[in-house]
Structure formats: structure tokens, C-alpha cells
Automatic annotation (TrEMBL):
A molecular function (GO) term: oxidoreductase activity, acting on the CH-OH group of donors, NAD or NADP as acceptor
CDD domains per UniProt: SDR_c
Comp. bias regions, Low complexity: 115-124
Family to which this protein belongs: Belongs to the short-chain dehydrogenases/reductases (SDR) family.
Protein name in UniProt: Oxidoreductase
Coiled coil start-end: none
Region called Disordered, residue ranges: 104-130
Protein origin, superkingdom: Bacteria
Species the sequence originates in: Mycobacterium kyorinense
């Protein structure tokens, strides 16, 4: 298989399902060799279908090249290992897609891990009382986990892959963000029906700031760093876990086409942007190779 990304190696995190899976498939269809990174090797919740192995199988059945790497982005040793394994198997890494995020509740069990006894419920400090807003009942550990996966792991992955990009004199880093980073916006709030996502939205806002900083530092090395956001809701398994009520939706495949275009941009023209996927797909967006 050849295409516009022929000869390039990519890492896509959170690629067992949803946007990560679609992006991995789209990059491979353009010729990139893809490291499909995630925790899910077996379906552990029927509402969250997909595994890293299935994504690789689908890429290979279409004629592409991919490897599955199980990695927990809360584990720094896993982060280091996934980069080393990608480089050893696929060559220098010139595309990084930081897609993994903490969304649906729960985490798949580790391979061969013994069953854990149920823990007694623990009341978090500042626990909410009936009728109080969810923010007051969200444990700090849950809030922190959003940042550890979406921001801290992305930061470390950028540091680990950039030597390859600097040596190659080009590269593309795509951070997947969300409109949640800008909600609920300035108050007061006449409409309070939507709720807030302080952990998810806050981590995405931090990821967008990291995008600016990385883009500023890396532009002289011809490395483009951009944040890509869905312009409309995309009913991935993670989002569908919570709700399906949207006036307009887009598809994961459409979003993935935008990610491919960002992987091809010239860093002198398009970097440090937070951009909706429909803007990228619009005919006026032509600053790419």
C-alpha cells in the first residue's frame, strides 16, 4: 500500500475504538505504518467494543502495516516502552496522535491479573450531598486521572518522539481536543441544562495550551503541532456511553480524514492551531503537502 504518508511511522493512542481507531485506519490507508496503542486486548464491556488487535487486523486486511501495543498511559514505563517498540518495529516516528483520554468509567483489567475483591465505598473529601452539583462529589483522583492521561502522557510522548522528528527534519503531532475545553464559558448561566465536565474539559484546555507551547518550540525543526477538535458531536462508543441526544453529528471516518490532512501540513504555515475538523476538510484549507 502506498499513499501520501508512505514510509512514515505513526503512533496513535487510544486506538482500540472510536476516533483513535478511525485515525489509525486512515493513516494506514495513506501508507503510514501505525502503532495502535491502547489498553484493550479483549472486550470487557459490551458497550465499549473494539480492541487494539482488531484495529490492527482491519488495517492489515486492507493491505496496511500496523502493530498492536498494549500500554497504560498512567505507567511511565509503558510510555517509554511503547515508543521503543514502535521505533524498533516500524522505524523513526514522524507522526504522533495523542488521542487517549479518560472518558467512560472503569478500566480494562490487566492481562492475567487476579480478580480484585470489591472495595468498600469511600466518601471523598468534600463529598456531595443530595442536590449538590457533581463537581463537589468528584474525587480528586478521578479529576487528576484526566490530566495524567490526556496531558502528562501527551507531554512525555512528545518529548520521546521528537528526537526522531528533529533528525528527519519534519514531523506532525496532532492532539485530539474537544469543545468541552471551552464549556460552559463565561457566566452567569441562564441555561443550566448541559452540565459541565471539569476533568475532561479541563484536561483538554491544558492540552490545547501544550499544543501552543510545543508548536512554538518545534516550528524551527519543521514539526507541526496542532489540536484537532470535532466540529460536531461524533457518536463514538465513549460518547454514546453517556448520551446520543445531538441535533447534528459527524462520523469518525470524516474526522479521521481531517487528521490525515493535518499529518501532511507544512509547519511553516499551519502549526499551533486549535481547529475543528470541518475547517480542515473545507476547500479553503490548502496549506498541506
Amino acid at each position: 500500500m502506498t499513499g501520501r504518508l508512505d514510509g512514515r511511522a505513526a503512533i496513535v493512542t487510544g486506538a482500540s475504538r472510536g476516533l483513535g481507531r478511525a485515525i489509525a485506519l486512515a493513516l494506514a490507508a495513506e501508507g503510514a505504518a501505525v502503532a495502535v496503542v491502547g489498553r484493550t486486548e479483549q472486550v470487557w464491556d459490551d458497550r465499549l467494543p473494539g480492541t487494539i488487535g482488531q484495529t490492527v487486523a482491519d488495517i492489515e486486511s486492507a493491505g496496511g502495516r500496523a502493530i498492536a501495543i498494549r500500554a497504560d498511559l498512567l505507567d511511565r514505563d509503558d510510555i517509554d516502552r511503547l515508543v521503543s517498540e514502535t521505533r524498533d518495529a516500524l522505524g523513526p516516528i514522524t507522526i504522533l496522535v495523542n488521542n487517549a483520554a479518560f472518558t467512560a468509567p472503569g478500566r480494562p483489567p490487566k492481562p492475567d491479573a487476579p480478580a480484585k475483591p470489591a472495595k468498600p465505598a469511600r466518601t471523598p473529601s468534600g463529598a456531595a450531598k443530595p442536590g449538590w452539583p457533581p463537581l463537589l462529589g468528584t474525587p480528586l483522583a478521578a479529576y487528576r486521572r484526566h490530566f495524567e492521561i490526556s496531558v502528562f502522557a501527551a507531554y512525555e510522548l512528545i518529548q520521546l518522539v521528537c528526537p526522531d522528528m528533529v533528525a528527519a527534519r519534519f514531523g506532525s503531532i496532532i492532539n485530539i481536543t474537544s469543545v468541552a475545553a471551552r464549556l460552559p464559558g463565561d457566566g452567569p448561566y441562564a441555561d443550566r441544562s448541559g452540565g459541565v465536565l471539569p476533568g475532561y474539559g479541563g484536561s483538554k484546555a491544558a492540552l490545547e495550551h501544550l499544543t501552543w507551547c510545543a508548536a512554538f518550540d518545534l516550528q524551527s525543526h519543521n514539526i507541526a503541532v496542532n489540536a484537532l477538535s470535532p466540529s460536531k458531536a461524533i457518536l463514538t462508543p465513549g460518547l454514546s456511553y453517556y448520551t446520543r441526544e445531538f441535533d447534528e453529528v459527524a462520523t469518525a471516518e470524516e474526522f479521521a480524514r481531517a487528521a490525515v490532512k493535518l499529518a501532511l501540513v507544512d509547519a511553516s504555515a499551519v502549526t499551533g492551531r486549535t481547529i475543528g475538523h470541518l475547517q480542515v476538510l473545507d476547500g479553503s484549507f490548502r496549506a498541506y503537502g
